[in-house]
Amino acid sequence: MSPHVRIASDDDTLEVRRILDAAMLEPGDVEARIAVGDVLVAGDRRGPKTNGGTADTSTEQRATGDGAERILGTTVLEADDGGGAHVSAIGVRRRHRGRGIGTTLIERALEREGRLTVRFDDDVRPFYEALGFSIEPIDEQRYRGVVTAQSRR
Q1: Dihedral of CA 21/24/29/30: which sign?
Q2: Which strand (E) or helix (H) includes residue 120?
Q3: Which pLDDT score is estimated for 153?
Q4: The pTM is what?
């Protein structure tokens, strides 16, 4: 499956919150980040069903899995003083992990921003290493990483 990545809309807020809550992530004011276009979502490509010839893209219809897009992962970005963006959170629904959804979200964010920074725990270090982030320790259990679009070429 190749996930479809797009900018989140206000209608996606509940699903974004559910994914982040399940991952025990607290990226701050998600609604504000959605309002300014700094939240990306990845979904399946089943596309919205039509209702009398018009697309029905309500949150409930997208989330039910009845032929509509399901949001499977999300990333929350915030402006970074050094240029580009900081990844304040990334989450993928548990049963869809290991399928490249998180990788696709980071790749799209990098294409859009040109430079990404992130802070993370030791257990996800292999994920960021595989994506080409330059990593340095903050302390014994936390790291910071940076990647640029040019460094990935």
Answers
A1: negative
A2: strand 115-121
A3: 60
A4: 0.83
